[in-house]
Amino acid sequence: MSKNEKAEGVVPVFKLIGYGLLIVGLVFGLTGSASAQWTTTPITSNTYDDLYPQIHNGIITWSGSDGSDYEIFMYDVASGTTTPITSNAYDDLHSQIHNGIITWYGNESGSDFEIFMYDVASSTTTPITSNAYDDLHSQIHNGIITWYGNESGSDFEIFMYDVASGTTTPITNNANNDLYPQIHNGIITWQGWDGIDYEIFMYDVASSTTTPITNNANNDLHSQIHNGIITWQGWDDIDYEIFMYDVASGTTTPITNNANNDWYPEIDNGIITWYGSDGSDYEIFMYDVASGTTTPITSNAYDDFYPQIHNGIITWYGYEGGSDSEIFMYNVVSGTTTQITSNANDDWSPEIDNGIITWHGNEGGSDYEIFMYSRQMQVPALTSIGLIALVGLLSAIATVKIVRKRR
Fold first, then answer.
1. Model pLDDT for residues 52-88, shown as the tens digit of each residue
2. pLDDT digit string (tens) for 342-372?
């Protein structure tokens, strides 16, 4: 056997040894498999208040003080970068976001509030209204912005703006207040005064038709909509109860019927959640539209408030310690509750989208900051066996190079 033949025989042997060690290391060399762990991340850290975050598709937006007035900011979860959206000498408040369009109202003239929007993709800001009266509390879904404005100077009306066409359409025109519109898939809902009390209405953008949902002698308030189901709280002569309306069938269904107040329902994918009194404190409940079943989410001796829901995760804040509020979440599928925060400061107003929860918390006891809670991949550590695998691989590579050099 020639020297070259012997050398050629060495290469496969060392390759087998090196690759064998590599396989062993891959199997046993990690402390555990890669997994997604829930992690809390501070988004802001300053000496000013940052308040009421909203989130959609990995973009968080909020209103934060710069020391003189409130401005709008956004945070990109993927890149970890914060971008100021406004920078001026007046207040910009209550931003909302959907599909990369942020909307808010700002006191541009110093005398009244106007509606604005910001396109994340193009980094451009567009004023939606410019008039001499207040326009407030804009909401957005699929390129349609809706809000209420004090057009006549005596009462508020509902308006909408189509981002694609740039056109504004008045939805209501009467002598009574119409307030707090919400929108989903081209259906706008709001509460409007009928001369006696507040009723719930809806407007179909495609057909330009308005439909009264309630017509009674009691207040119906705070409507929300998702996938053609409208929910609200209504007075039944004793207390507030939760109701729902199916747009497709035109039927109204009472969700609660008890002797205690039920407040501020939210809905997502056929799950309605709200907070209601159990006679001693407020608890969180949910209702499954498909099965018609109500489930208590909390049952404790302290108040739980203002639940939000997305994709089967409900989040809210509760006064667990009795002195400050903490953030919680509930998984509808598993039926498990998780406490997200546990500190001596207030954590308030959680919002959720695609498994990311964001809220504002009084971290240092002096001002409010923005936080988020999300799943992040944890890479397992390399053990001594893993190091053996690495050495084996390097040995195999080195052997091949030495043999080839000798040849």
1. 999 999 999 999 999 999 999 999 999 999 999 999 9
2. 999 999 999 999 999 999 999 877 899 999 9
- Which has more pLDDT, 218 or 17? 218
- The two tokens of residue 396 are 């195999």
**Per residue, what are the HEC states of the chain?**
CCHHHHHHHHHHHHHHHHHHHHHHHHHHCECCCCEEEEEEEECCCCCCCEEEEEEECCEEEEEEECCCCEEEEEEECCCCEEEECCCCCCCEEEEEEECCEEEEEECCCCCCCEEEEEECCCCEEEECCCCCCCEEEEEEECCEEEEEECCCCCCCEEEEEECCCCEEEECCCCCCCEEEEEEECCEEEEEEECCCCEEEEEEECCCCEEEECCCCCCCEEEEEEECCEEEEEEECCCCEEEEEEECCCCEEEECCCCCCCEEEEEEECCEEEEEEECCCCEEEEEEECCCCEEEECCCCCCCEEEEEEECCEEEEEECCCCCCCEEEEEECCCCEEEECCCCCCCEEEEEEECCEEEEEECCCCCCCEEEEEEEEEECCCECHHHHHHHHHHHHHHHHHHHHHHHC
φ/ψ of residue 350, rounded to 5: -70, 145
Within 8 A by CB and 6+ apart from 236, the residues are 218, 257
Residue type, 107: N
- CA-wise closest residue to 86 among 60, 106, 68: 106
Tell me the C-alpha distance between 235 and 254, whole Å: 11
Nearest to 230 by CA among 238, 240, 222, 218: 222
Contact between residue 266 and residue 274 where contact means Cβ atoms under 8 Å apart: yes
What is the pTM for the complete model shown? 0.86
**What distance in Å separates the CA atoms of residue 254 and residue 252, rounded to the nearest whole number?**
7
Determine the Cα–Cα distance for residues 187 and 227; give it in Å rounded to an integer.
Answer: 9
Q: Which residue, among 170, 123, 397, has the nearest Cα to 405 in the 3D structure? A: 397
Q: Which two tokens stand for residue 318?
A: 């509760």
Among 291, 288, 347, CA closest to 319: 347
Question: What is the spatial distance between Cα 358 and Cα 380, in angstroms, rounded to a whole number?
Answer: 27
What is the reported pLDDT for 364? 78
Give the C-alpha distances (Å, rounded to integers) separating 44 from 111, 112, 301, 360, 361.
Answer: 30, 29, 33, 10, 10
Measured CA to CA, the distance from residue 152 to residue 143 in angstroms comes to 26
